[in-house]
């Protein structure tokens, strides 16, 4: 069984792949899961709907960028 991190990474990669081809408001759970090759119930085990997923993705990416900026600032102060 895949871990949450593995599933989240697969969903993220597939979502971003779809986003390259179409506008964000046209991406559906059905299309995402079909592209990913998983049942929609698997998606719903982690997220309540596509908007919940988009919010999680946004928060994850902002947090990752924020942490990078903090690390960069900290390392420049130490040098």
Features:
79 residues; 4 helices; single chain; mainly alpha; elongated
Percent of residues in helical segments?
A: over 70%
Give the integer mean of the pLDDT values. Answer: 91
Strand content of the residues, in percent?
Answer: under 5%
Describe the sheet with the most strands: none
Order of helices and strands: HHHH
Q: What is the general shape? A: elongated
Sheet/helix structural class: mainly alpha
Number of helices: 4
The count of strands amounts to 0
- Kindly provide the radius of gyration, computed on alpha-carbon positions and rounded to a whole number of angstroms: 16 Å
For the record, give the distance between the C-alpha atoms at the N and C termini, rounded to a whole number: 45 Å
Q: Stretches where pLDDT falls below 50 for ≥5 residues?
A: none
Show the helix and strand layout.
Blueprint: H1 4-21, H2 29-36, H3 40-44, H4 50-78
Q: Please, could you describe this protein's structure?
A:
The protein has helices spanning 4-21, 29-36, 40-44, 50-78. It is an all-alpha fold and 79 residues long. Helix 1 (4-21) crosses helix 2 (29-36). The N and C termini lie far apart (45 Å).
């Amino acid at each position: 069984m895949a871990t949450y991190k593995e599933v989240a990474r697969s969903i993220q990669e597939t979502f971003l792949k779809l986003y390259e081809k179409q506008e964000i408001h046209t991406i559906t759970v059905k299309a995402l899961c079909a592209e990913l090759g998983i049942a929609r119930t698997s998606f719903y085990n982690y997220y309540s709907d596509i908007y919940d997923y988009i919010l999680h993705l946004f928060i994850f990416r902002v947090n990752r960028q924020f942490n990078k900026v903090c690390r960069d600032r900290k390392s420049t102060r130490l040098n």
